[in-house]
């Protein structure tokens, strides 16, 4: 029929994404939220809405992430965010021919992503990385070998880590949540001089069995091969449809869902990511 996409052509996928947070505090406090989709290629924000009575304004951080600054009054507060976004229905690409850039040829702006960071202690786990992955041919296959190892080595256990857990802690414990899977894979990549960065966002359950746990934000990572950033996910370890990036950075320090300047208690947390 005229107007139908050709076989194999990308279709537009419309998604509702967002979250609701309930917070409680005995005093007035400030906070920064990172929950709005990043303005990246392939994502179009059709509409968005903040639902709150609190004073707030937006800004863009050094990594290009959209952040929202709030001042909340004492007591029980609620803040909600919802957006309708359009993106292609293509799954994460797999480019088996992608190659590594030798360290001496890495562009200056990528060196930042081969250095250790707060949660990704590539210097501490360097020996483990070289012992396990040095014999793999450089390129996509080696990054995928890291992903396969982390996916199989770590057990996914909700609540098994805390905001101070590093990749080295996770490696010793053998368990973690999605951000820990990403941190450990990033750490091994950086130890092998492969630029890698942390990614945080929404993933709808499209084309996969529905999970037992409620919808939540997810963390994955990107590795730079041949000058191009590619998506890898050590927690799920399968190409997914409909990722919506909220933020990127060195690790979870740079992409925190909530940074509070005070001591609020989280009383409610709900996440939405589903086709329109």
Describe the structure.
Helices cover 16% and strands 36% of the residues. It is of the alpha+beta class and 276 residues long. Strands 3-6-1-14 form a four-stranded antiparallel sheet, with no helix packed on it. Strands 4-5-2-13 form a four-stranded antiparallel sheet, with no helix packed on it. A hairpin with a 5-residue loop joins strand 4 (55-60) and strand 5 (66-72). Helix 1 packs across helix 4 (178-191), helix 2 (140-153) crosses helix 4 and helix 3 (167-173) packs across helix 4. The longest helix has 14 residues, at 140-153. It is globular. Mean pLDDT is 93; it is low at 1-7.
Gyration radius from CA atoms, angstroms: 19 Å
Helix content: 10-25%
Number of helical elements: 4
Structural class: alpha+beta
Reported for the largest beta sheet, the result is: 4 strands, antiparallel
SSE run: EEEEEEHHEHEHEEEEEE
Number of strands: 14
Query: End-to-end distance, in Å?
Result: 24 Å
User: How would you state the average pLDDT, rounded?
Assistant: 93
- The dominant shape is globular
Question: How much of the residues is beta strand, in percent?
Answer: 35-45%
Enumerate the strands of the largest sheet in spatial order, edge to edge or round the barrel: 3-6-1-14
Are there runs of 5+ residues with pLDDT below 50, and where? 1-7
